[in-house]
Amino acid sequence: MTLWLGPQPLVLASQSSARKTVLANAGIPFEAIPAEIDERGIAAASGIAAPGAIAALLAEQKAAFVSNHHPGRLVLGADQTLALGARSFNKPADRAAAAKQLRELAGRRHELHSAVAVVRNGITLFSDVSIARMTMRPLTDAEIEAYLDIVGDKATASVGAYQIEGLGVHLFDGIHGDHFTILGLPLLPLLGFLRSQNLMAV
Ligand SMILES: Nc1nc2c(ncn2[C@@H]2O[C@H](COP(=O)(O)OP(=O)(O)OP(=O)(O)O)[C@@H](O)[C@H]2O)c(=O)[nH]1
User: What would be one Gene Ontology cellular-component term for the protein (predicted)?
Assistant: First the structure.
């Protein structure tokens, strides 16, 4: 008996190592085929300001892009936006941007809006946006620099310049929300959908 009942593996429209790990640990077979879209351009052209709506749009656009190149396949797209008050943040471009972003997040609560979409033949079959609320400790510039010295390039691999399951945990006083939402893939709503399609044995 296997867990996955689908005729073919899921297609994951992502290069995210965290998203791959989440699916692999959940026992869901997938092929990773990153979407070649201009995320920032699409977000800017959409005129959308709400972080959850931006994440939902980009998750759907990533899945639709790959779906159009793989007819008949079930394609999963995901996106995550960080919101601090009315401002939205994306993955920092380099260490200096990560330091600047952490200085702004320190001592405050920010939200992670994680969206997932499932598309087949260009039709969106499922979408969900989940929110996690993260309370970051007050941090001195010296603490931020020490953290960045220790984590190195990983600081630019995540939207908040941290990996919560790794050393990023040291930055926080409080975490409210689903662990998978923080990692960037709302797994529980996705599993509910896959189950509803009779794709899972459990
Ligand atoms: N390991 C880890 N990754 C995180 C965490 N928080 C956010 N991320 C990752 O930060 C990235 C958010 O950027 P996105 O633009 O949504 O995705 P991406 O990395 O560009 O990958 P694509 O899906 O190909 O667009 C995702 O890869 C998330 O998995 C965390 O706490 N731990």
Answer: cytoplasm
